[in-house]
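Researcher: Here's a chain I'd like modeled. Treat it as a single chain, no partners, no ligands.
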Amino acid sequence: MDIKNLALLTKDLHVPAYVFNTDEFEARAGLVKQYFGEKTGLCFSIKANPFLLAEIPAIFDKIEVCSPGELTVCEKTHADMSRVIFSGVNKGKADVERAMDDNVGTFTAESWLHLRLIDAAAKERHKRVPLLLRLTAGSQFGMNEEDIFAIVRDRDCFEGVEIVGIHFFSGTQKKKAKIIDKELTYIDAFCTRLKDELDFTVDRVEYGTGLAVDYFNDDADAAEEERLAEISPKIREIAEKYRLTVEMGRFFAAPCGYYMTSVVDVKTNKGINYAILDGGLHQVKYFGQYQGMQLPKILHIGADDTQEKQKWTLCGSLCTTADVLAGNAEFSDLSIGDILVFCRVGAYSVMEGMSIFLSRDLPQVALYSEKNGLRVVREPFDTDVFNTP
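Model: Modeled as a single isolated chain. Structure tokens:
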């Protein structure tokens, strides 16, 4: 989205605010599909940005949901529950039963407990639900190979589930194609062993690439597309063997987000120009950013480009020296009331900040598309509400 359109949008928003461009979100998914091919399904992990679910493009085959709150988002946005993969490391009995009553399309099991809960809830409802077994990558998530082999060996004992495949995700911000290639080779070999040793054919593979997003690179789009090109041959290879769904959140959503915040004070302390913003690190977070040491793309609404640029340190509203959003950012004629737009905040930034620190209000959230225009999906609201005697 160009700066002129963003400037127009600010007239209808209560800053600070997030704006997510759903046209850009859909275009990003289309780019991934172009590289990965028609046989590869796409899954959006909504923990990256649940607000985008309000206008989820049809190009996504699946939606990954990892908590009761995210299930509520699906209910409120009238999401197609048949597209939902109900995942997450913490599933209780009530969570599983609720998801089953919502008729979610697929469950994942990260432990024997999950398997038993899902199986029991399905049998009580006279259902048989599709189940993916999550294979661990060496963290708290998923199960060991031995556990999955034991479950598959005794698969006929679980009348409420149909084990359809494997779920695998090891981490985020992977920049090297060889890491993803190695993981997919491992998954393929594991599935082959299940066939050879237990006569079990894996139908579906749900794989999270963790493909990296560049937040501080002027050529981010080109670098990210290059990564897509590098991993696409292996993705297409696996998609020929299994019903492959690639699950991502950050890579799909990051480029479509914009965080708008206004300058509320300016000062010079010991030779350093400081701009105090009405936002802060409780509302915007970049992976790998620490006290403004790296510089994301920041747009200055209404800048007078005829003025000489000066270096500024951009600080938020929190009472901590850690609340630095950018250091040595160059602007011309930066003044109180000016609006700055932080780009590439479509994933996690809106969710990961210390949102209630200092009891600041939560920002307004809006979606924008050329077809639907600007649509506010959350108004600002207080974080200082609590029960009193």
